[in-house]
Structure formats: C-alpha cells, structure tokens
Amino acid sequence: MSSFAKTPCTIVTGFLGAGKTTLVRHLLENARGRRLAVLVNEFGDLGFDGSFIEGCGIEGCTQDDIVELPNGCLCCTVADDFVPALNKLLNRPKPPEHILIETSGLALPKPLVNAFNWPDIRSRVTVDGVIAVVDGPAVASGAFAEDPAALANQRTLDVSVNHDNPLEEVFEDQLLCADLILLNKTDQMDETDRSRVRSEVRGHLPRAVKVIETAHGSVDPAVILGLGAAAESNLEARPSHHESADDHDHDDFESFAIPVGHVDNPEALEIRVKRAAEAAGVLRIKGFAPVRGKPMRLVVQGVGRRVAHHFDRAWRPDEARDGRMVVIGLKGFDRDAVEAALRG
After folding, report:
1. Of the candidates 272, 251, 242, 252, which has an alpha carbon nearest to the alpha carbon of residue 260?
2. 223: how many CB neighbours lie within 10 A of its CB?
3. What would the pLDDT profile of 158-178 be if each residue is shown by its tens digit?
4. Which contiguous run of DSSP H or E holds residue 182?
5. What is the pLDDT of residue 3?
6. Do the Cβ atoms of 214 and 223 come closer than 8 Å?
7. Fewer CB near the last or first residue (10 Å), C or N of the chain?
8. What SS3 class is residue 21?
9. 274 contacts: CB under 8 Å, gap ≥ 6
C-alpha cells in the first residue's frame, strides 16, 4: 500500500444477534497474515463483543487490535469517539492494513458512512464496503415486519394508532445501506423459509445488492474484504429513514446489566435466560457466567426465544469470576420480570 493510499474500512452492520461478532472473528481467524484491526461498538454496558473477540486467542490478533466504543451509537459521537479511535489505529507504528467496524445491533449505518467525510479522516480512510448480516430465522418469524391486515384494523378502530415499527426501520436502514448482504443462520432454516426471506430482503432493496447465504458467519474473506465501494462517496444511492445522527435516537430501546452468580450447569442458566426472554419487549440477552467446578467461562446468548451457550475461554487468574448479563429491549420492557427470571 502506498503512503497516499486510503486505509480500507469495512462496516459490519446487522440487527441484535444476527451474527456480526461471529463474522468478525471468522475474518480475523482467516486473515492469513494481513494486519486487521477491529472497532467494536455496543449498545449496553457489558463490553461483551469486544471481550468475546479478545478472548478467542486468534494468532496475530492482539488486545491492541481490538478497540471498544461502548456508547451505543458511533454516528452520534463522531468527534468524541469515532475519529480519535480511527486516528489512534492509523497512527500506530505498524498501522492496520484493513479496519473492521462492528456496529451496535441498533445502529443506523448511513450516518456512520457519512462520518468518513469528516476532514480529520477523509484523506486517510475509505469505506471499502458495508456488510449487512441478516438473522434469517428472525426474519422468517416476522420479527421485523408489521402485519398489514392487523395494522389496518387497528387504524380503523383508532386513527391515532402509531404504526411506526422501530425494529423494522432499523432493519431496513441496515439493508438500504449495504453493499453486500449475508443471509446468516441458514442452517436453521428450510428451503421454503430461505426462499421467502431472500424475497423479503430483496423487496427492501432499491438497487442490485448481492445476497449470500451463510451459516455461523463462515464466508471467504476475499468475498467481504476488497469490495472497493467507497461508500462515503455515493450516499445518495443509500436511502434511509434516518439521514443524519440528529434524525434518530435510541429512545425506542433501553438496556441494563444484571450480576449473575455461579451456576451449577449451563442448562440451568439457559432455562433462566429463556424465561427472561419471554418478557414482552425483550430483544436480546447476552453475557458470561462462572460454572461451579469448571475453569472455562460460560457464554450465553439469547435472541428472541432462541438461546444458546458455549464455553469460550479459561478464566484468567487475575480476574474475578463474576457473571453478568446484559438485556436489551424496547423502551419500557418489564425489568423486574426479567431480573427475577435471571436471578432464578
């Protein structure tokens, strides 16, 4: 790369639990010697995704290569967080050859793409591509779509019905900004659902965007990196419900973290998480917990009613074995019910 070339950045967007972090880990694990760095942005205060990447023991990926910005919305804090973080990476003695930016699951990508036109960074970086990771089973279940018939009936009965669906708007904004769409978790879908979801996704798109089916975010990095989209230069081709950072907020969503003590076995905690997920308005539950008699840290993740667990790494000697779960949901969800379920 010449000294005048811009460093390519890939923005990985997608709704809560779609598989963004798994994709980023896969790209790091298959970097083949290429220097990659990651900016991770989360909604909630656990720092889950950055820790998940750091703890994976990927050869050539150090703690300095992972930068966490746990403020929930990069595009709202461009000057304070995003630009300084990018410049810090670029100013390293051996700067990264490619930067991956994993957005919060509630983030709107277009204002972030527009941030690449800021004077401080526009001569140094470019958006190589925006990758939208889609949770196939969630779309198949109707998580992001209003029921048109039910909505029409509601409006007949009450003309003041607010029909805005914040989930659908965020989901659609992520698709509208994409240069490539990964239809993920296809191993959990039959062909009928896959075909239906592909059609639904394409129905949101105003331009030709390739849709690739994946499972566990497994895709050749050559497909993801090197698109050369220069997305910051063709914003007009990326329509949005929210054209700027001022045009949106996270008031539709909220999160909180709760301590979780030692558990007897993973299945016991998974049952508690499933019960918590049944509370109306809960969108995502994720976190860590210690298991009695086990040296490994237990990771539990729930998207809607789907919950999974695995051990990701050994607890370090210098860290307290404290479990915590972060819960993200629609504004006003029943925290008391969630907390009671998680505490068991």
Report:
1. 272
2. 14
3. 443 343 567 788 888 899 999
4. strand 180-184
5. 43
6. no
7. N
8. helix
9. 302, 305, 307
Nearest Cα to Cα of residue 98 among 222, 217, 232, 235: 222
Note whether 292 and 262 are within 8 A (CB). yes
Q: What is residue 243's predicted lDDT score, i.e. its pLDDT?
A: 57
Q: How confident is the model over 126-148, as a mean pLDDT?
A: 83
Pairing mode of beta strands 125-135, 180-184? parallel
What per-residue confidence (pLDDT) applies to 291? 92
Residue 24 has pLDDT above 60, yes or no: yes
Cα distances (angstroms) measured from residue 275 to each of 113, 283, 338: 38, 13, 8
The pLDDT tens digits for 110-119 are 888 988 998 9
Q: What gap in Å lies between CA 11 and CA 294, rounded to an integer? A: 36
DSSP state of 79: I
Determine the Cα–Cα distance for residues 147 and 143; give it in Å rounded to an integer. 10
Q: How many CB atoms lie within 10 A of CB 168?
A: 15
CB burial readout 178-189, b (16+ within 10 A) else e: bbbbbbbbbeeb
Which H or E element spans position 157? helix 148-157
For residue 333, the model assigns a pLDDT of 85
- Beta-carbon neighbour count of residue 6 at 10 Å? 16
Collapse the DSSP code of 49 into the 3-class scheme (helix H, G, I; strand E, B; otherwise coil) and give the result: helix
| Percent above pLDDT 70 for the chain | 80
Paired residues of 208 in beta bridges: none
Q: Enter the tokens of residue 63.
A: 């703690």
